[in-house]
Amino acid sequence: MASESDDDYQDNFQESDAYVDSGDDSDFEAAPPAKPAPKKRGPNKSTAKKTEVAVETNGHAETAMDDIEMIDVSKSSNKNKSIEEIYQKKSQLEHILLRPDTYVGSTEVEEEEMWVFDSEQSIIKKKKIKYVPGLYKIVDEILVNAADHKIRDPAMTYIKVTINRTENFICIENNGKGIPITEHKKEKVYVPELIFGHLLTSSNYDDEEKRVVGGRNGYGAKLCNVFSTEFTIETADKERQLKYKQIFQKNMTVIKPPSITKNSRGEQYTRISFKPDLAKFSLSEMDEDFEALIKKRVYDLAGCVDNCNVFLNGTKIPVKNFKQYCELYTKSLELGPEETKKEIIFDNAATGRWQVCFALSDGQFDQISFVNSICTAKGGTHVNHVADQIVKHLAPEVEKKSKNKNVKNMQIKNHMILFIKCLVENPTFETQTKETMTLRASAFGSSYKLSDRFANAIAKSGIVDNIVRWVKFKEEQKMSKVDKGLMRRTLNIPKLEDANFAGVPGKNKRCTLIITEGDSAKSLVLSGMSVVGRDYYGVFPIRGKLLNVRDVSNAELMKNEEIKNIKAILGLQHGKKYESVDELRYGRLMIMTDQDHDGSHIKGLIINFIDSMFPSLLDIPGFLLEFITPIIKCTHKRSKQIVSFFTIPEYEQWALEHNKKSEWDVKYFKGLGTSDKMAAREYFSKPEIHQKEFQIMDTEDRQLIDMVFNKKKASDRKEWLTQYEPGIFIDHNVSKIKISEFVNRELMLFSMADNIRSIPSVVDGFKPAQRKVLYGCIKRPRNTEVKVAQLANYVAGITQYHHGEQSVAGTIINMAQNFVGSNNINLLVPSGQFGNRHSGSKSAASPRYLFTRLSKVTRLIFHPDDDAVLNYLIEEDKMIEPSWYIPIIPMVLVNGADGIGTGWSTAIPNYNPKDIIDNILRLMNNQPMETMKPWYRGFKGEISPSGPSKFAVNGIAEVTPESDVK
C-alpha cells in the first residue's frame, strides 16, 4: 500500500518540537516555583534530545526514536502535587494515544445521520447511526492511500477491500507499484517500516510540488497502525524482485522484524491488514452501522477512482464511474410516488479534475463531495465554488417567479443536493479529520465552470418551483403570525371610524364595515350615520384602487398598507378558513364606491381580494354587500317627482321613452362627494333600496372573478369581451345580486371603457383624452399661447372630463413634445421645458410654467372642412368631442400608438410621414404599397428589419478625446 511515503519518498521528514500543555484548569500562581524553561529546540538538530522506547523484536532489543512531548497534567485540584507529578514528558506516540481527538477525532460513540451503504437494497441512503469518528478515520486513511496510489501509478487496475466483523479484521490491497524494498540510508530502516511505523514521515512535505493526493501531514496510515492491536504491511517490489512483510503489534509499540523473500514472478502490490484496537474506542466489536459506513466509503472509491475495479469481500462493485456512483443515491432520494422521484442530473460537460451532479433536496442543502478521494462530509470551499455558480444562475428566475427580491442565496442553495468529485492541488483542511476543505478557490489548480446545458437542466428540474413554494409558505407563515390576535377591541389605524361594538363578542356579528372610495365618500357615510348610529357601523376610506392580490407575492401583500389595514379592521387571519363571522371584528363588509366605471372596478378588486385570500368568507350568507347611490337624478319640472338611476345605460334607456329635455331636470352625480348631507340621510334611511347583498359564491362566480383578474388569462378576457352588448346594465331592483351578474353586466362596462380610453383609435390615432385636448384647442376663440394648466382646466370643463385636470395637463405635455423619440409631428407647440429624450416627460416643468397652442400643421391634417360632418358625442346633455377625427393621413402611424387595456393592448412605432404619403398615393393609384420601417424625427442611427415584425435599432455614439461618450 502506497502511503504518504512511497517511491517518491523524501528523506527530509521533520521532528516535532517539545509540546507543553498546561491543562485547561492550571493555575500558574498556585503552582510551585519552577526552574526557567529550556530554550525551544529547532528541528533536525544533532543535539535534539531523544527518548529510546524499547520494542520487542523476536528476542533482541531495538529502539524506536520518537520526539519527546512535554505534557502538563495539572488540574486545579492537583495543587499539592510535585513539579515532577504535574509536568510529564510524553513521546509523540504516547501523545497520540493520550490525546487521540487531535489526530483522528473523537474516540467516543456518537449518533449522527450519515450516508451509509444498504447491502439489502444495494443503495446508499441516509440513516441515523452510532459510530466512533476516530475508528472511522483510521480505516479511511488506508482507503485514501489506496486511491492516492492510482494517481501515482495510472497502471494500477484494482483495489480490494475485505471486512470481517467477526474477526475484527480489515484488509485493503491494490496492485499498483510496490513500495521500494530497500534500507533508508539515513534512518537505517527499510522504507516500508519507515512509512508505516515512524511518525511524521511523508513524501508530501514539499509544498512547492503540486500534488492531487490526499496525504499531507505525515500521520496518515501510521494512525491506523497506532490504533491497532495488529497491523501488517505486505508489498511486492517488481523492480527489486523482492517481497516484504512486516507485523506491528500493540499500538505500534512492538515492531516485528520484516520478512523479505524473492519476488520471482515479478508481482507488484501493497496489502495492508489490521485489527483495530476497539478498546481504545470504547467498543467490544465492529457493529452493523460501522460496517455499512465503511462499505459506503469503499463504494466511494469505486466512483472516485477512474479506470480501477474495486472489490468488496471478493465481489466486484458494479460502479464504473462517478455518474453510476451518484445513481446509487437515486432510490434513497425518492419521495412517495414515482412522479416525485428525484432525478440526478449529471454535468456531461464537466471533465478533467471536476465532475458534478445535481439533485433536488427536501429543503435542506446536502452535498456528497470528494477532494482527491477524501470524503469531505462537511463540504468546504470546493462545494461553495460550485454551489455559488448554480445559485447565481437560478436567482433571477426565482426572483421573477416568487415576486420577491429578498430571497437569500442560502435559501436557494437549501433546495439542492450536490455531488462533487474534484482533484485539488495541495488541499488544506480544517482539521486532521479532513471533513472540511479550507483551501481558497484561486489555489485549486483548476476551476469548475457551470455549463449552459447543465444550468438549464437544473433550472428545469423543478427547483425554481420548489423555492417559490417555500418562499410563499414562509411568507404565509409570517403573515399568519402577524395576523394572530387581530380580534382586538381597539385599533390605531388612520382614518378608521370604528363601530362602537366592533370586536365585542356577541355584538361583533351585527357590525358592518363600510369601505368607501376616498375621503369624500367617507364624509357621506358619516352624515348617514346620524340615521343608523355608530354602534354597529364603521367606515374606512381606501386611497384609489385596491391592489390586485391575485398575482402578487406575499411579500408585496405584507408591504401594502391598504391590505394590512383591511385585514386588521376585519380581524382576518391569513390562511384561516372561516365557517362563520364569530371570530371577526365585523360580521358584514359593505362596499361603497362611485357609480361610474372606476367605482365598479374598485368593487371588483375588493371582491377579488376576498376571493383570492379568504374565499370561505364568500360562502357565508350576508357577509358581503354593496351600497349603491344614484348616478343620475331626474326631477319632473311640475310634479317634482324624482327618478333615480344607478347606471348610465339604465338612464339612457329610460330617456328614450321620456321627453327629458322639456319635462325633466337632469342632475349627474359624478361621485359620492356630489351628494349632500340630506341625501346621505335619505340613502341610509332606505336600506332596502341602497343596500344590496351579494349572493354566496358558486363555481361560476369564482371562475369569472379569476378570469377578470388573473394576469395569465388575457385570452379569456378577449373572448369574454366579445360577448359585450351595448346598453347592458345590472338590475338593482333585486335584493340580492349574483356575483356573475355583477361581472357580466357591470364589470364588463369598466373593461370596455378601459379599452376605449387606453387604446388609441385606428382612425385618428387618439385616445379619448387626446381627442378632448384637440377639441378644446379648436374650440378656443383664438389660437394664442395659453398656460398648460389653464388649457387643461378649459378642456376638462367643455368636454365633461371626469378624471381631473392634472391628467389632462399630462396629455397636453405629451402632445407638444418634439424631442427625438416622441412625436414625429407635434400637434401642439411646446413653449418651455416639455421634457427631453433622456427622461421623457419626467423632466417636464410644472403645467403652470408651460405654454402651448395649436401647431400650424394641425389644422392642415385635421381639416376644418371636416368639422361639420363629424359625429359629436353627447354627455350630460352637452355636446362634446367627436367619436373620432378624420385626419388626411393616418396619424396612428405618424406618431405611433401604445396602450394596455383589458384583454387587449397595442404597440405601433412611429413612421416617416413622407413614406406614409407615398404609400397612400400608391394605394389611390391601385399600385402595390411598399413595406415601411420605423422612423423617428431627428434620430441619426439606423433601424433595420431583424425578423417578422421585428426591427433592430443601432444608435450612434461619439467618444471624445477625454473618453467621454456622447
Descriptive overview:
The protein is an alpha+beta fold and 966 residues long. The protein has 6 domains: 20-98, no CATH class; 110-325, Histidine kinase-like ATPase, C-terminal domain (Heat Shock Protein 90), CATH 3.30.565; 330-461, 2-Layer Sandwich (Ribosomal Protein S5, domain 2); 484-629 and 692-750, Rossmann fold, CATH 3.40.50; 630-668, 2-Layer Sandwich (Dna Ligase, domain 1); 759-896, Topoisomerase II, domain 5. The chain is 30% helix and 20% strand. The protein contains 28 helices and 39 strands. The strands form 11 sheets. Strands 8, 9, 10, 11, 12, 13, 14, 15 and 16 form a 9-stranded mixed β-sheet that branches. The protein has a 6-stranded mixed β-sheet with strand order 23-22-24-25-29-30, with helices on both faces. β11 and β12 form a beta hairpin. α3 (133-152) packs parallel to α6 and α8 crosses α11 (463-483). It is elongated, with a radius of gyration of 43 Å. The relative contact order is 0.05. Residues 1-76 and 335-340 have low confidence and may be disordered. Residues 1-73 are annotated as: Disordered.
